[in-house]
Request: fold
Amino acid sequence: MSDHLITGTAKLAAHPDFKLIGRDAELSKLCSILARKHSSSVLLVGPAGVGATSLCMGLQAMKGMDNPPFDIVSKSLFFLDVDEMFSSGDPNEIDAAFRRGLARMQKSVEPVLIIEDAGDFVEACRAHGATHFINGVNGLIRDGKLQVILETCDGDASKVLAWHSEIREAYTILDVTEPEDQDLIDIVTAATEKLREHHGVAVNEGAIHTAVELTQKYRQAGGTSAQPKRSIALLDRALASYRLAAHATPPQAADLQRKIDAGAAAPGDSETLAAILSRHAARQAKLLKFHEGQKGAELEIVKLEEALEELRAKAAENPEEEAPSAAPAFARLTSGKGFGSRAEQEIVQRLASFKDALTQHKADYEAVAAEMNADLELCRDTVVAEFARISGIPAAKLGEDEKAILRELEANLKGSLFGQDPAVEKVANAIKVSKVGRRNKDKPLASFLLPGPSGVGKTEIAKQVARQLLGDAKALTRFDMSEYMERHAVSKLIGAPPGYEGFEAGGILTNAMRTNRNRVILFDEIEKAHPDVFNLFLQILDDGRLTDNIGRVAEFSDAIIIMTTNIGQPHFLDESISYDDAMDGCMLDLDNNYRPEFLNRFNGRQNIIGFQKLELDSIQKIIRREVDDLASSYAEHGISVTFSDAEIATFCADRYEPRIGARGLPGMINSDLEPKIVNALLDQSADDGASFNITYDKAARRFGVEMLRAAA
Reply:
């Protein structure tokens, strides 16, 4: 009976091309832990797809290397097949199999049990009443008779740690982080070779680098898996799409057709196109023929095998009905049961014939497919196009290099934020310096503290920085610090201590950063946060890292940190003083509220950038943008909405309050103006083609909606 254990040798033999790449540091740490006397079992924790199983296989593979460590060579590795062990659903059988496995390992020298997806193992034990398994394992660990490696993703780490009180003492947590830089490129390049074999299509180096760059930069759009899995998955999808398109129409034919359609064809292009398409059609016909041959041979083989099985079963039931004939030696050998009957010999011969035909059809099919794929190569543009389909980000945006994005950063930010040009310029320049001339890679990419009145664009600039650098304003991670006013709120960010409610959930901030380090993080209105939260801020801004409740490290070295505060806003609202004087007054207020070491973390206070109150012309631009957005949404339904600049100016002059900022006026557009348009459409039964003119009555302080034309 099976004990559902797979030896390290057998596991590695199932992956003959396996090679651990880019994980030397992690493998060295793993070996070091296994060589200890205390806490020498391991809890491998990392995001899904990071390669924890590959690390364990690398442990087995290093035994075959030159001069491997004797302390590792002497260990016997066993992988537990969890799915197979629990597949019966019979608690007694499951228990017996697990006990057989433990007994088998005890007969080996220095056994190490490896359990993949330990979170699933925990759930399976609970579901089948087998929670005592961990007691048996822990007892062997305690007696020095067994070491264990548990693999788990970030989300299940707390579940595994909470399973037994001894786990924290017996196990050492090894945090498996995503590979970076050249290590990541090397891993993806090696994996791409297997993709090339599967798809039969070459992949150039530019495609690999592009896949890595896109899945790193636009992680929120590239899936939830970790690297290198994200990059490999993108290349796999791109190869599938490219192969299907190329097999439908050869790339050379598509290029020529585009030239002909654009009127840019050279002499002979039409004839060349016809020849390519003819050759392609002939190859497709051959493929179809060989495919049909394969199907036919496979069906015949199935029928003949069933007939042979039935004949042999019948012969076994009635051994004297058909005496063996003097068959040729070949038939006797191939039948598998002595000479066999004449009918059996005929079936065996036909089987051999159809199997030969199947082999030939497959070989012919693969040869023609190789011809079709010979000129195909996945390139950068195809990867970009595939990622654009996945993410919804325009390919033109994805195709921009970072230098182009940084060159246009200031202009693009100014196009979205009105009336804050000095602040925008400082933010843009600080980001450019951090991206291009970065010297300290342990701190966040850039950190800003933005004081100023409410509703002047502090939150908006964080959204726009995320949009420009990460391709989507949704890439912004925002924390409203009014939710962190209590002392215990710190646990929300880094996770509750063991034994407290919410321990298994981990920390909101640390979980987010471990999922994706390439973020723009906004801590909004920090003056509302409890003072203990500022201890975390100090650590983030200085060390660029936080340790969560489990002991895992979250890195902030690729993050842009933006904090906002309303402290000092009266100075910016005072029309009798200049911006510089307002900044001086604001800095005094900040000094009275925050510790110097906190304020100094913002590039020596150079990245404390005040936002001034908005002038009326800036408010008018903001409202014009809101109205244009409103009009464009109705234009999609054939309805015209106009609101003249003069009427907007009247509205803004009457309703704008500097202490509220720009927030109040767009709200009036949504709550006061748009319902009037909707009600006019409903009351007058207007259909597509209606046209509305918006006015503002200063005396009555309300909008007017005039229908100029209704659809017939």
Q: What stands out?
A: The two ends are 82 Å apart (CA to CA). Residues 235 and 658 are 52 Å apart (CA to CA). The mean pLDDT is 87.
